[in-house]
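Quick one, T. Sequence first:
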Amino acid sequence: MKRYVLLWLLCLLALNACHAAETPATIDLSSSSSPSAQISLTQVQRVGAAERARDGVAQQRYAFQPAALPQITVAPAVGKAWDWTGKGELRLRVQNAMPWAVTLNVDIDSASKQQHLHASVGVPAGPVQTLVLPLHAESPRSEGMQAPPPMPFDDHAQLTLLATTVQGAIDLHEVNAIRLSMPAPQAAQTLLFGRIDTAAGEATLRDAYTGIVDSYGQFTRGHWPEKIDSDAALHAAHAAEQAVLAKASAQVVGMDNYDGRLDVPNLTKTGWFHAQKANGRWQLVTPDGHAFFSLGVNAVVADGGRSYVEGREFMFQDLPPATGAWLPFYGKGDSRRPDQGASEGIGYNHGRWFDFYAANLYRVDGARWMDAWRARTLDRLHAWGFNTIGNWSDASLGQAHRLPYTRPINISGNYANVSAGYDYWGRMPDPFDPRFVQATEQAVANASDDVHDDPWLLGYFADNELAWAGVGPQGRWGLAIGTLRGDAKSPAKRAFIAILRKKYVEPETLASAWGIALGSWDALNVTSFAAPVPNEQHPAIAADYSAWLRLYADTYFRTVAEAIHQHDAHHLFLGGRFAVNTPEAVAACAQYCDVVSFNVYADLPQHGFDAAAIREFDKPALISEFHFGSDDRGPFGKGVVSVYTEQQRGEAYAKFVAAAASDTNIVGAHWFEYVDQPVTGRLLDGENSHIGLLGITDLPFDGFIDAVRAANQQASAGER
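Structure tokens:
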């Protein structure tokens, strides 16, 4: 008898184990019931009976009602969880019944570790498609680029919508729910669902990125007017453009040799570019003494088409061989920068790369492609109404003395640094470290060595988009908090503590003012000190932090300015190209720089920086970066400020430049950048946006260029 009881118990345990981890069959959402799942609806309604799609497969309409989070929950019908061991993707048949794209959230819950996966997918209007969700964290960054290929795509004659970004993790041994939801619809939104199943491997993910770039560096699945399909077409397009440029080479009437206006009075001739306030507004003034509104382009270089190919050769069709004439367009590199947020999570970030843009220049002009490119580029910029070669551009373009140019001062070295909490391009340099002073002096000496007597040089930018602030509501104080949180040996931290000791004398006085416990000054000078966040009850914190931020910025800008004045007595200090900033940093820049520069990513320049503060400081401002991008010309990204179409890019450009030219404190605007970024991402950080004046084949986007030319001519000839 005991034997039978024991066998019965063993069978029961085995049965329970099977129920606890059951691999489900296909779940059919077109049916009100499923043998392998239970379906519950929250603020979602079934609409009508099941329907048959064109392929004969059944699907059911579900109307997501106006609510915070209407949701369909699919859970195991028997036992506690599904076992998806060995599965790599979830597949869901879906069709959008609305005439617009609808956002669908897909969440998969894992019971045992309270984990889940999350994806948010835009389901476009149109025919039925298969939504595929990788069963692990995934993003385009892990594929080496910042923006993914457009979805859906044709995957072996099946319209497939891949969730290109998936967050979280699950235990595949114990999956207990699939949730389909919609974030706060304002009116009922109807989707049709069919079957749900899982599949082994990651075939869909691989297919989504396979063969997406052709031999010219263009997106294979897209179509646009400037797309090239043969070498003959490439040569013909360039020849046609060259004929147009030849007709536009004449000197503009009413301008001096530097493209300065001859009709603006009361300006001083110094033999160098300088800034001057006259006739109620700030002006840049050419060496010949004429008004100059700087219209520039950043990154005018021939090597911007480099993208890693090693390890992801499957993404590229017909890559040229790494031999013979094509060998110079291959190289090796390593862009891994653990200290930079820009590089975080970027896969395929080292190894062999190929330069598609330079290879196309070789296809057009042969062995002398670089000389031909430089001449053509200068012709273009002049014909398109630009008068300045912006930052990070080929130095030879400026040395040709056809357009004024700028120079970057890139300060680097083995000096201390401080984290402001943003750190997108790295931590802040510590200007209190004597090694920073030495590095600055050397960087300025290198940058100015061959140009300090060149009248065509407009001026110098120092560094780029430094992390003057952190993130979030208290981001303004990030650099102060980061200083106190830093290493006990930090020169900046020691300087900050010295100021506090001088002001408060006793640690107890500081503790009372800040509302913290502080038994000694040594307690402040420890690594990872938990600095307080400013609050209304203790206003001294904000006051002390603000004073420190100003001293920090003063020290940085004064150090750079003194080095520039030592090595170059003639040219302008154009500032530090602010992205994130604080009032203290801007005020310091205004004190020590000739021009305050801002990288502005907004619809209008005045919406991207504190224009009122600049007027109060009575200083000229330069928009050192701006752009507008769309995704209808190949690259997947739309830039920092996006529009829908190429035509809207031109409209946005014209509106921005007109607003800049009409502002009495703004003295110029520089577009970022000359050439579109590679489809599969640039080496530095995987950026892959359509933000260029021309494409990877070195052909301009004619409609956009027409709008740019007209806007530039208007800005150059406008009211002064």
